[in-house]
What we know:
The complex is a heterodimer.
Chain A: H1 2-21, H2 25-50, H3 58-76, H4 80-102, H5 107-126, H6 129-132, E1 138-139, H7 155-178, H8 180-190, H9 192-197, H10 202-228, E2 230-231, H11 233-236, H12 239-253, H13 259-277, H14 284-299, H15 304-311
Antiparallel strand pairs in A: 1-2
Chain B: E1 2-13, E2 16-27, E3 31-35, H1 42-49, E4 57-62, E5 65-66, H2 72-78, E6 80-82, H3 95-103, H4 110-123, H5 139-151, E7 157-161, H6 169-184, E8 188-192, H7 196-202, E9 205-210, E10 213-218, H8 220-225, H9 227-238
Parallel strand pairs in B: 3-8, 3-9, 6-7, 7-8
Antiparallel strand pairs in B: 1-2, 1-4, 4-5, 9-10
Amino acid sequence: MRQDRLIGCAAAAVLAVLPLVFDNPYTLSVVILTLLYAYLALSWNIIGGIAGQLSLGHAAYFGIGGYTSTYLFLTYGLSPWLGMLAGAVLASAAAALIGLPCFRLRGAYFALATLAAAVILRVIVENSHELLGGPRGMEVRLLHDAPWYFQHTRKEFYYAVVVALVAVALFANYAVLRSRFGYYLTAIRNDEEAALALGVNARRCKLQAAVLSAALTAVGGTFYAQYVLFISPDKVFGGHLSVQIAVICIIGGRGTLWGPALGALLLLPAEEVARFVTGGAPGAAMMLYGLLLMVVIRFEPRGLIALARRATGCRAAPRAGVEVA
Amino acid sequence: MELLEYRGVAKHFGGLRAIEEVSFHVGEGEIVGLIGPNGAGKTTLFAMASGFQPTTRGEVWFAGRRIDGRPPPEICRLGLARTFQIVRPFGEMSMLDNVMVGAFLRHPDRPRAHDRAVAVLERFGMADRLEQPARTLTLAGRKRLEVAKALATEPRLLLLDEVMAGLTPVETAEMMDLIRTVRRGGTTVLLVEHNMHAVMRLCDRVVVIHHGRKICDSDPATVAADPDVIAAYLGEDED
Ligand SMILES: Nc1ncnc2c1ncn2[C@@H]1O[C@H](COP(=O)(O)OP(=O)(O)O)[C@@H](O)[C@H]1O
Ligand SMILES: [Mg+2]
């Protein structure tokens, strides 16, 4: 509790001065991307981490968010801020639709089913030339400095927005972990049948977690579309985005409050370095992810956050289960 | 008043007739023992009352409602809680958090659930180890935790599946005390147990199952002297 507040304050302080230190556009763009992935990993954490349901289809929700706000903006001139909410609602519906049949499946089957759902959505979007631009995607019409339309020429604008998003996602995770809902999700991750026997409506809990997770992820999709001002199926519905989000969270520490953010903080810069070293060889990033995943799973399945906690000696025997630190 | 009632229940797994036909009841405030050789169908009877298995035939009634085929969480909410023969702690969670999961059923807000869980663990003499991760508990600790979790849901009826198996005599005596305390607290108990000494001393009534049929239903002394029961247990020894 107190620890969490301390870490939170320290993180806020660092984030406040960061754009002053990194004032060149390249570094700032790496920082923004890192924070976006931290946000996505935190969103994934609710269903994939806390509830332990390995979703490999979160790109679907990310894509729904980006496409919904962009479509509504281009077609009706609706501000992407509002489109973002519409995207979150649509993604929630999609999560419920995918979740209802898939939650009957366990483990790898659930992962495969979510993966398939994302692929299907991608194929649909790729074939809707008229409506959504097909495989070539859609460009967000430039308005330059229009904060009410979620656009700005200065990167600091996006930096501020993504920092706010990370704060919201952290708070959502914190609130979940401290509530009955979080205890139920953690119990389901540990042993679903045992949870049922204690009166936990596991299906409903998983569904609620999936919906919350999808809504948050969709908001990230709108942010991405507005930041890049362009959206296409391979960028937002790609299978490797789904995997990336999950791997970041798992490497950082699934089911914990700070793990997902820590994972992004280490992996995104590492990915940048790898790209630089290999001269942008395709697949280098995925190899890095695979390698790190293997190492982490081998030595500390509970993720880097558990390592960090051990190294700093705080809570050698963690207050297990609902791990908030 | 009858709290739990099996009415002509049968359960087949494919060709295997685990329960042929069983009827019995448990009255409010009783401690009833359910005994029988291994594979007799005791755990299966629990599974049908707690919503984990549908019946093939027959009905299970609890507190005036038919409950077989309802989902487990709903049955638990009605006031029937079970433990698992192979204990199922939430391994990564602390003892306290394990019991809180149960307590949340009747107390949705965290501070109340916390206090209720601590109270239950105090009754179980485990209040000094609240933060211990469940996976690090000894067998006796796990068995007690299994009962504590179920009890935290504040059930009217508790189904205990071999909660004394594998315990030392001292631990067994402690568990027997616990079960008596539970009943004194107003909870009815139906327990499956192999330790005959414990069954004879604890139970008001004993139901014997053999090959999926009820062969005896009486007070402990009568059951112990029943020739069919003795034959059933001797038969098991020959296997
Ligand atoms: N899910 C199941 N599928 C198939 N057979 C089962 C299943 N559960 C129990 N059985 C069988 O039913 C019989 C009764 O088992 P069980 O109720 O566990 O007995 P007990 O608890 O009295 O030892 C056994 O022969 C067992 O193998
Ligand atoms: Mg059994």
